Amino acid sequence: MKRILVSVFAVVVLLTMAFTMSGCGNKVVLNVFNWGEYMDKSLLDLFEEQTGITINYKTYDTNETMLAKLEAGGSSYDVVFPSDYAVSEMIRKDMLLPLDFENIPNFKYVDDRFKNLEYDPENKYSVPYFWGTIGILYNENMVDDPVDNWDILWNPKYAGQILMKKDVRDAMGASLKRLGYSMNSTNDEELRQAQEALIEQRKLVAGYYGDEIKDLIANGDAAMGLTYSGDFMELYWDEDADFSHISFGVPREGTNLWFDTVVIPKGCRYKKEAEMFINFLLDPDVAYQNAMTIGYPSPNTVALERMRQEEPEAFELDGFWPDDEIIEKSDVYVDLGEYKSIYNQLWTEVLVD
Amino acid sequence: MEKYIIELKNLSKSYNGVKVVNSIDLKIRENEFVTLLGPSGCGKTTTLRMIGGFEDPDEGEILFEGKLLNPVPPYKRNINTVFQRYALFPHMNVFENVAFGLRIKKLPKDEIVERVERMLKMMDLENFGKRHVDSLSGGQQQRVAIARALVNEPKVLLLDEPLGALDLKLRKEMQIELLDMQRSVGITFIYVTHDQEEALTMSDTVVVMNQGHIQQVGTPEDIYNEPNNRFVADFIGESNIIEAIMLEDKKVRFDDHTFDCVDVGFGQNEPVDVVIRPEDLQIVTDPEKGMLQGTVISVVFKGVHYEMLIENEYREYMVHSTLMFPEGSRVGMNVQPVDIHVMKREGHKS
Amino acid sequence: MKKTAVRIYMGLIFLFLYAPIIVLIVFSFNKTKSRGQWAGFTLEWYAELFKDRLITEALYYTVIIAILATVISTIVGTISAIGIHYMRGFSKNMLLNVNNIPVLNPDIVTGVALMTLFLSAGLRLGFVTMLISHVLFCIPYVILAVLPKLRQLNKHTAEAAMDLGATPSYALRKVILPEIKPGIVSGALMAFTMSIDDFVISFFTTGNEVSNLSILIYSMAKRGVKPTINALSTLMFVTVVILLLIINKKSEKGEELLL
Questions:
Q1: Which pLDDT does position A23 carry in this prediction?
Q2: How many residue contacts between A and C have a Cβ separation below 8 Å?
């Protein structure tokens, strides 16, 4: 027994050394920090093969986690994937390096509609990675009204059948948009009205949830719920189960357009190589493969066209590809600055009132 | 010159500023059965633990066969101990417990087996070798603990209240067994107990301790019959202890009566303590025929004798007698001069 | 009658305890990615598990850190427990209370505190800092598991061994350690489990190089936990069950296990 333990211990130590040593040497290692399950990982191997650059790929669950990790220091990251509002926050906090677009020629493939957005007005720091909307995921068997407006979340007919997203921006945003205001409103009167509507809605709501909404709707536990288009796409692409009765409605009044982007944070040690990686992600072939794996619409026009040929049905869906008219009316979240705490306050009152 | 196996010289030990052992001197002969007797906290166990090497003395020397033992760690002393509640090794069977010391000495396997089995046989534990120690009765565990110590053939065996956890009947049996064992193996036993009866039954020499001091060293008879002071008299058996005045040699006065006694060498009119054992007082029915008079106030039947309390105007006397005198009867009491034991009054300088 | 009631009660308790794990195991063989629907049997997730470089890497670090943290914390914790046990009075009580603080302290405080300490010491967050942290939060559990065993020990056991000629180290190896072995083993198992499932402290004390399974799984929250994680959890559960069975079997036979 003793001998076995000693040998196990020795193997462990050797393996540890082997792994920690491999990090040394003169090889360039890019530290990439992305959302969990948000990239086709075979692309990493492809990039490593093509360039000889090693990628150390780590993942996070929320923008806040990523920001906390970056701000704590103690380790550096070369490429991260913040969402829209997080980009504006990072710009405000001077955490980003401006990109050298000379090194990112593939930026030309990016849909012009997705350039120079509010969170990065001059498009100096970020490149869009994926985008989508928030909307209403619903069970066709349980809802007989058209799901194309925010009002349906306030429809007493579906009392006890409605799930709300437990997220201040999404809930307040839906309420603001329903009243015809901007999702980034900093008008106290508008905010007050939005809050009132949410309080009024509470008696209809079966529960406030995060990521569980997708599964609850898929299992038929509730009729509809406010969630990301990405959740719908997950169900849509699932080849092994039948979710044909699950649909996604994007309100005509307009909604939130969310963007996840690619940026280079300060502290990056290999900026040129990081830009090479960003350029790589924008390559039409790579972007196509990545989008097909993840199942979200690519902001890359060439890749998108290829997707359209491959999966024409998806482009009929609001959840995947909303009408231009909706996009026109929609808002991209921006950093609220001081109003962040006012939103939080109002939302907390809704939940506990 | 007599040969001593253990000598304690001016031995002291304190805990948190309290002297639990206060400069004691003691000499122990080979093959002697010595008992350290005293109430709990008197320092007897600490003394034993210093001999065993588990406590370092603050001051003083411990000699073993004339050689200084203080710097020798316990595992190099040719002394073994039977601990309170035995401290057997529960993860080993009986055989392995007994073989423990021999295995450390790296004796050949067959010798270990032979010696352990001989020892188990001696302890009536022949078929218990494979048993788990937890499955044994208290008496059996006790014997394993003794076997575990004796198998190493120590020159001295220390026993720390070894019978304390046993019931009365078993304790009596084990006392006899232990005594037989000590006689047959011929090694020195140093035995700690707070039970005076046990001490008197078993020992060659009794060492009475109190508050870190040795009160008296002597044979059981000496200790019982000639207590050095009030503490020893009180601790050893029941006795009547009386404050008295030594008028002159062989004359002592208490309770308005002058008694003849055999003690000499006290100052004139020196205050002293007198001990009279309850069985040494003879009761006479006619109060006038007694040196002392009193009234019987209680009678308890004790099997061999009656224990009676007899009250006079000064005190109560405890008396043991085979005859019964009813409560309330007026009686006289007599005592032989040899049964009056006069002791120096503590704290009195003559 | 009473017996049946007892059995039913026991059955319910076990069902309650193990239902989540059973569901998890079942779903690790489910074809579809979404929870709550059965779409047929597949081993696909098990195969994919070993293809995913993130999962294999995180698994590797989780296991390595758990083994190293267990070994180190068990040794250090056992020695500390023995030391504390033979202490007296004020310092003993103080140490015992100090030992309880990390156990009662919210992980988040421990994590942030450790991170602050490492950063202010100029250490780069990574494998070493995470290992140190795991060792640190495991030690109190080992101490807490070992101390009761020491208390059960007759206080003269070590002395009895030395009395019979054992040097202090021999007494420790042959008498004290075997006596407290069940405590050491349960302490080690506890340390191993604590290390494997720690998220909060690991999260704060690791850097860009090393992440463990908890961090990885947690990072999947937004896009949904993949069934590969069910497969992985099933494998880990089976491993732990096998470990426990081995330990039980060994201790039944009274064989020497760890020492």
A1: 47
A2: 129
Nearest to C162 among B74, B84, B91 (CB): B74
d(CA A77, CA A58): 10
Domains of chain C: 48-253 (1.10.3720.10)
CATH superfamily of B238-344: Nucleic acid-binding proteins (2.40.50.140)
Q: Looking at chain A from residue 140 to 159, which residues have their Cβ under 8 Å from any Cβ of chain C?
A: none
Distance of CA C77 to the CA centre of its chain: 14
Domain A2-131+259-313 falls in which CATH fold?
Answer: D-Maltodextrin-Binding Protein; domain 2 (3.40.190)
Distance from CA of A237 to the nearest CA of C (A): 10
Nearest chain A Cα to C209, which residue? A56
Q: What would the pLDDT profile of B124-144 be if each residue is shown by its tens digit?
A: 888 898 999 988 988 899 889
What backbone phi and psi angles, to 5 degrees, belong to C196?
-65, -40
| Strands, E assignment, B250-335 | 251-254, 257-260, 270-276, 281-284, 292-301, 306-311, 316-321, 330-335
Two structure tokens written together for B53: 């090497």
Strand order in the sheet with B240-248: B257-260, B251-254, B240-248, B270-276, B341-344
First to last CA, chain C: 47
3-state secondary structure of B247: strand
- Residue contact A19–C60, C-beta within 8 A: yes
- Give, to the nearest 10 degrees, the angle between helix C53-85 and helix C177-197: 140
The CATH-assigned architecture of domain B4-230 is 3-Layer(aba) Sandwich (3.40)
Distances from the Cα of C35 to the Cαs of A215, A216, B85, C48, C220, in angstroms? 7, 9, 61, 18, 15
Tell me the one-letter amino acid at A116. Answer: N
User: Which pLDDT tens digit goes with each residue over B216-273?
Assistant: 999 999 898 888 888 998 888 888 999 999 998 889 999 989 999 888 888 888 999 9
Distance from CA of C73 to the nearest CA of A (A): 14
Task: Tell me the CATH architecture of domain A132-257+321-352.
Answer: 3-Layer(aba) Sandwich (3.40)
Select from C115, C211, C219 the residue whose CB has the most chain A CBs within 10 Å, as the one to mutate to test that interface. Answer: C219
Instruction: Report domain extents, chain A.
Output: 2-131+259-313, 132-257+321-352
